[in-house]
Amino acid sequence: MNAVITGASKGIGKAIAEKLALEGFNVAICARNADPLATAKAAIQQKNPAVTVLAEMVDMGDKAQVLAFGEKIKSAFARVDILVNNAGIFIPGALYEEEDGLLEKLMAVNVYSAYHLTRNLLPAMIPHRNGHIFNLCSTASYKAYPNGGSYGITKHALLGFSKNLREELQPHHIRVTSVSPGPTLTASWDGFEAAPDRMMPPEDIAAVVWSAWTMAKQTVVEEIILRPMLGDI
Q1: Where are the bilayer-spanning segments (predicted)?
Q2: At what angle do helices 113-125 and 63-76 cross, to 10 degrees?
């Protein structure tokens, strides 16, 4: 079994990759920076030395690099069973104050990367009638927040992409799940003053992804929303 997880050098993506490797999946991961990527690859491999870990430097905001990553995946793996579109950037700020071009930048990483990679891999997934696509959305996909800015727009768009994909892939028996976490203890929250126990551990997000995958093939969890027990911060 083979899985692809984008933006997996840390945080939620890394936790999901480690969980899937532990369960016997070969995994393909990507990130922008070489050192964190190498560290993540070693940590994932340590979870299960028997699996293959493909790690590629990819700027997910660059369409050409996203498509090249897709081609490398298809060369390495005969099929893709799980695709986790996790890559994303969180930059807070009010729409009227944020720098020009930020919306385009966030759309490229948070939405277009999932669109392009999914389209690249789907022709090889459809014949097997047994795949699962997870799109890492956010509670910001459902509720606008002050200073959500362009980030909130992109997360609403990603949820829309996920819903549309779900409808289109029903006849092909490929499941699509939108996973929308609230505050999670990842690097995205560095510098934010909050007690660690007010945030969710990324391993919990990985656990719900695994749970959704292991359900009967005639069952699909369409949307998952997770928040800290005491609510958003």
Answers
A1: none
A2: 30
